[in-house]
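in:
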């Protein structure tokens, strides 16, 4: 993210993402941009590895303040079709792994970083099944 855009942001928005928002100048930026498909070269304005729902809310607020788009990405399987990420914060959600199973209602709720293998296992523990694709490492959200 450009220094100008960072300076125009509300300091509270930036403070809540301290240490999680990586711009192109950060030494870990290139690694943070990587998708599952290594041929997909992602060049966003910034990357945030969300560790909580609060992080997601903060990223959306910050992007709104700065006039940037937000591109959520769980496992990175759909990176190539996303196109240009210029003027975009890449929101990595792979750390959001909570799964809630309500066996009485027969409902499984997942956070954005859960893979189908994890969802299948959690549902199976309660005698339930989920409609998963053929690849266990693809994210439920994708």
């Amino acid at each position: 993210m450009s220094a100008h855009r960072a300076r125009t942001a509300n300091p509270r928005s930036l403070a809540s993402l301290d240490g999680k928002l990586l711009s192109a100048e950060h030494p870990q930026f290139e690694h943070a941009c990587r998708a599952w498909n290594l041929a997909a070269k992602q060049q966003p304005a910034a990357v945030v590895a969300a560790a909580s729902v609060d992080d997601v809310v903060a990223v959306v607020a910050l992007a709104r303040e700065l006039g940037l788009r937000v591109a959520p990405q769980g496992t990175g399987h759909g990176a190539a079709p996303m196109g240009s990420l210029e003027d975009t914060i890449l929101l990595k959600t792979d750390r959001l792994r909570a799964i809630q199973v309500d066996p009485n209602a027969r409902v499984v709720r997942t956070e954005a970083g859960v893979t189908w293998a994890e969802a299948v296992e959690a549902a199976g523990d309660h005698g339930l099944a989920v409609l998963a694709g053929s690849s266990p490492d693809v994210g439920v959200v994708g």
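note: The radius of gyration is 17 Å.
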